[in-house]
Amino acid sequence: MTKRVGFEHFTPGIGNIRQTGYALGLEREQDKEQIMVLWLATLEMGRGPDGWVTGFHKMSESMFGSPPGAIEADEYLSLLAVLVAPGRYNLGTDDQALQERKDRIRRLLAGECVPNGNSDVWLEGCNS
């Protein structure tokens, strides 16, 4: 997140030191809720009706016409599902890969499965 917020043009190397300093300063000046709001506002969410969308709330408004707290559970799962790879899934379409990812998240939330360790971002441990 700090790369997206604090640097117009980020370059690795010395940039990593600056990024760490920026992150430490951000944590010193903002509380956890403010940092979460900033993080949600900078998430890459994929393609919406009018092109690429940045921001969890913006995508919710763009796709479903309401903020995340006012949409249906299945719509919310769609937003969560695209976070792992926003360019891979197509919200607002009959995307079978997106549906499969939502089903894995549903099984995880219901306690019907567990990820295959901490690095299982694709939730392979929740395949049916």
Task: Give a verbal description of the structure.
This protein has 128 residues and is mainly α. The protein has two domains: 1-42, no CATH class; 44-128, no CATH class. It contains six helices and two strands. A two-stranded antiparallel sheet has the order 1-2. A hairpin with a 2-residue loop joins strand 1 (44-48) and strand 2. It is globular.
Radius of gyration: 17 Å
Provide mean pLDDT, rounded. 85
The share of residues in extended strands comes to: 5-15%
Structural class: mainly alpha
Poorly predicted runs are none
Q: How would you describe the shape? A: globular
The main β sheet shows up as:
2 strands, antiparallel
Tell me the total number of β-strands.
2
The number of helical segments is 6
Topology as H/E string?
A: HHHEEHHH
Per-chain topology:
Elements (H helix, E strand, L loop, with lengths): L1 H5 L7 H16 L2 H11 L1 E5 L2 E4 L1 H9 L8 H10 L13 H14 L19
Helix pairs in contact: 5-6
In short:
With 128 residues, the chain is mainly alpha-helical. The protein contains six helices and two strands; from the N terminus they run αααββααα. The mean pLDDT is 85.
Defining traits:
128 residues, mainly alpha, two-stranded antiparallel sheet, 2 strands, globular
